[in-house]
Write a structure and sequence with these properties.
Strand order of the largest sheet of chain C: 1-2-3-4-5
Number of strands of chain B: 23
Largest sheet of chain C: 5 strands, mixed
Oligomer: heterotrimer
Distance between the termini of chain B: 96 Å
Chains: A mainly beta (337), B mainly beta (290), C alpha+beta (168)
Largest sheet of chain B: 5 strands, mixed
Shape of chain B: rod-shaped
Distance between the termini of chain C: 5 Å
Chain lengths: 337, 290, 168
């Protein structure tokens, strides 16, 4: 139910409701600065100019927070909470709201479409294709060896929500691997307590000699009940490409309060990366993994165009963190990764 | 105990009855003690009249109408699965039976060669294993001691050979991977029958990973020297090399695949930056940029 | 050497004590492994292999008695399955069926292939074999045989791939 835009806050709330309803025309028409861009620009600012997480995200909720106001102008923060297949993400915009008679209208701060200069980027990185063995019981017939992978670090930690198993996995082979890790907590008498697999806090495709962190959650488990942990790294051959290469620039470890790792992803290839998954491995002074955090970028990565990331670190762990390592796995429509 | 005693009585009674039947009908049969798989053989019967001859085992079952008193011939290729068989002669309510065995043919016809792995690093002691099961033409396991030769050869002609005697139909061996990368052939041979597998020997971890840095405008151009393993084999293209630049609390990281033997990247030039290079768990040199 | 019941009566009188009733389980003796391969055999693996092999006798018995090849699917694979399936079709075509009851197994694992993809065991087995033409019992044998068995791992269990009786 839309309210009259008789206050700056009401104007922003109305805009938020129209965005939720995907009533792009109405939302655009309500803007004060609509002459500066088209309705399509406005829509794509919110849903992505290229296929990305935003394209399929739905607006879950929004918050409106007045920052300051005068008789004719106000600044209001709009925090839009989107929900996507890989979890929620938040879009924060500080909006200028201007008075027009008895109504207030929002001045939308459009994030303009990045334009990559026309150019040719030569890409000649490797690509691996796999021909698998056919079905049937041809015992003794040789198959292609699964990639050799190795857990190079692993330890459990007790958290309020349960036991977490952290570690790193190395593809020590010369071929790409699709990897996952399964951990089974065993009691002191050797009986299994629970078994879980790494799911989203791991990079599932590893190129030769690439390392991924992993984090496996055991909700409600208690470390004092655990006698041992059985780790099962799994790998299979997978077709893959060494392109695109993603550079991670200007990484910064920001201390508590609000501890985070920030930086920028730069797509060094010529193709658009639709979704990037940034995995942050956090180490203590001894080099042991203390946490694995992650974030998906909600916007596509255009060639040579930096896209920022900001990954939250749990407050209680922030002071233990001495160094970090960032990797990014990517997904491109029609691509391999 | 009572059940076991009853069973014993049942067995004795059944056997006695069978023998009485056979004697009453005056018929019998005499198969050979053993038959080589797939060979022709004959079963002589005594008596008169018509009967049915069954040959029953876990591997095969055959039935024939026979004239008692005559010899029934089974041509080559009729009974071929090795195992224990019972020949039973049935004429009305009369039966007689005798057990015999079919043994594998002595000539090997096929091998199941399990060779692992199909891909491994160079220079691993006993890194390659081969295991071979030997079969005759009817897929019976040839269990008699049999000589098997294993040979791992690389394109340059160098070879490692092993001679092994198979026991109960199986022989195995282990050989080292060589110091040189390449596609090797691993062959198992028994008489004229052989089976070949391909074993790809790939370079090991990078050894002495080293990079250099040069100024390129606002950036530093970083490049490794050709990356090789400790035996001098070129590490394959596509292998990930990680460059990390640390400066004033900031860090930049790039995972770069090797291309034409080297990894190259441009990173921002910052005075006082420390740049390191690594591949997997192998660390390379560090550069302090001034 | 296999021995038919006709000439085994004396032996039977000696062996009668351990012989169990039809419904009872076979006596199983497992010799310590005598491996001639390089791979170490874990006790858990050995236990699983023996368990699955003994289970295969149950499947074999039911399948050959009912001439139902699908009963082999769980425990047999490859050559062993193909041969037993062929036997069943031949039995069905001739109107006969067979009843196998294992009485005693004396087992020893003798080979574990380096790749972990095959295990060979020797079973000095004693079993009863009863042959029926339709519903008429034609003969009953008590058989002693040395079986050479090769099992290979599948997703959930070890399956018999080679199953071959030898002259003792």
């Amino acid at each position: 139910m839309l309210r009259p835009s008789s206050t700056p806050q009401a104007a922003v709330e109305n805009l938020g409701d129209k965005i939720r309803l995907q009533a792009w025309g109405n939302a655009y028409a309500s803007l004060d600065n609509k002459a500066q861009f088209t309705e399509s620009d406005f829509e794509h600012d919110l849903t992505g100019y290229h296929l990305s997480l935003r394209t399929y995200a739905t607006l879950e909720s929004f918050e409106v927070r007045p920052l300051h106001a005068s008789n004719n102008e106000a600044e209001v923060q709009l925090r839009i909470h989107w929900s996507s297949v890989v979890g929620p993400f938040t879009d924060t915009r500080n909006l200028r709201v201007v008075r027009n008679g008895d109504r207030w209208n929002v001045d939308w701060p459009l994030v303009k479409r990045s334009v990559v200069p026309p150019q040719v980027i030569a890409v000649n990185y490797l690509r691996w294709d796999v021909i698998y063995r056919g079905s049937g019981d041809d015992w003794g017939v040789q198959d292609v060896e699964a990639p050799h992978v190795r857990i190079v670090d692993m330890h459990p930690v007790q958290r309020a929500e349960g036991v977490v198993v952290l570690g790193e996995l190395l593809n020590e082979d010369v071929v790409p691997a699709y990897v996952s890790v399964r951990a089974t907590l065993q009691s002191k008498n050797g009986s299994p307590i629970a078994s879980e697999g790494s799911f989203d806090r791991i990079s599932h495709i590893l190129l030769p000699k690439q390392v991924t962190p992993f984090l496996i959650n055991f909700p409600d488990a208690n470390l004092s009940d655990v006698g041992s942990i059985r780790m099962e790294p799994m790998s299979s051959l997978v077709s893959a490409s060494a392109d695109p290469v993603i550079e991670i620039e200007n990484q910064q470890l920001n201390p508590a309060p609000g501890a985070s790792v920030t930086g920028q992803l730069v797509n060094q290839s010529g193709q658009v990366v639709n979704i990037a998954h940034v995995l942050e491995t956090l180490y203590d002074k001894t080099g042991q993994v203390v946490w694995v955090a992650d974030q998906y970028t909600d916007r596509a990565l255009l060639p040579q165009t930096p896209v920022p990331f900001d990954i939250h670190i749990p407050e209680d762990l922030a002071r233990k963190v001495s160094s970090e390592r960032t990797i990014a796995s990517t997904y491109s429509v029609g691509g391999f990764q | 105990m009572r059940r076991r005693f009853a069973f014993l009585i049942f067995c004795i009674a059944f056997a006695t009855m069978q023998r009485a039947r056979a004697e009453g009908g005056s018929m019998s049969l005499s198969p050979p003690g053993t038959v080589k798989a797939g060979n022709a053989f004959a079963i002589q019967t005594t008596g008169s009249g018509q009967a049915v001859l069954y040959i029953v085992g876990l591997g095969q079952v055959i039935g024939r109408d026979v004239q008692l008193g005559e010899t029934t011939f089974f041509p080559a290729g009729v009974l071929y699965n090795a195992g224990h068989y019972v020949a039973i002669l049935v004429a009305g309510s009369n039966t007689d039976n005798t057990a015999f065995d079919v043994v594998p043919a002595s000539r090997p016809a096929s091998l199941s060669f399990l060779a692992r792995p199909s891909r491994l690093s160079v220079g691993l002691h006993d890194g390659i294993s081969g295991c071979v099961y030997i079969f005759d033409a009817y897929h019976n396991l040839i269990t008699a001691p049999t000589s098997v030769s294993f040979k791992l050869s690389n394109p340059s002609g160098a070879a490692q050979e092993r001679a092994v005697v198979a026991h109960d139909g199986v022989a195995w061996t282990e050989v080292d991977s060589t110091a040189k990368e390449g596609i090797d052939k691993f062959k198992a041979q028994v008489d004229e029958v052989s089976s070949t597998r391909v074993v790809e020997q790939v370079p090991g971890d990078p050894c002495g990973l080293k990079m250099s840095a040069t100024q390129s405008g606002k950036d530093i151009e970083l490049a490794t020297t050709p990356v090789r393993d400790c035996s001098g084999n070129a590490v394959p293209d596509g292998t990930i090399v990680t460059f990390t630049e640390t400066y004033g609390g900031d860090q930049s990281t790039v995972d770069v695949p090797l291309k034409r033997g080297i990894a190259q990247v441009e990173m921002p030039a910052h005075d006082g930056a420390t740049i390191s290079v690594a591949s997997g768990v192998v660390m390379g040199n560090e550069i302090h940029w001034r | 050497m296999m021995t038919s019941i006709g000439s085994m009566l004396v032996i039977f009188s000696v062996l009668v004590v351990p012989v169990a009733g039809w419904a009872e389980q076979a006596a199983v003796r497992v010799e310590p492994s005598n491996l001639h391969g390089p791979r170490t055999l874990q006790q858990e693996t050995a236990t699983a292999v023996i368990r699955d092999y003994l289970q295969s006798w149950q499947s074999l018995s039911s399948a050959l008695e009912q001439n139902r090849a699908e009963l082999l699917d769980q425990d047999f694979v490859g050559t062993a399955k193909d041969k037993l399936t062929g036997t069943m079709h031949e039995q069905a075509a001739l109107g006969i069926h067979t009843r196998y009851r294992d009485r005693a197994h004396d087992l020893q694992i003798v080979f574990y292939s380096p790749d972990g993809l095959s295990i060979q065991l020797i079973d000095n087995v004693e079993y009863d074999e009863q042959i029926f033409e339709h519903d008429k019992a034609l003969t009953m044998q008590r058989v002693h045989a040395r079986y050479v068995v090769v099992l290979t791992p599948t997703e959930t269990r070890w399956r018999v791939r080679i199953f071959q009786a030898e002259i003792e």
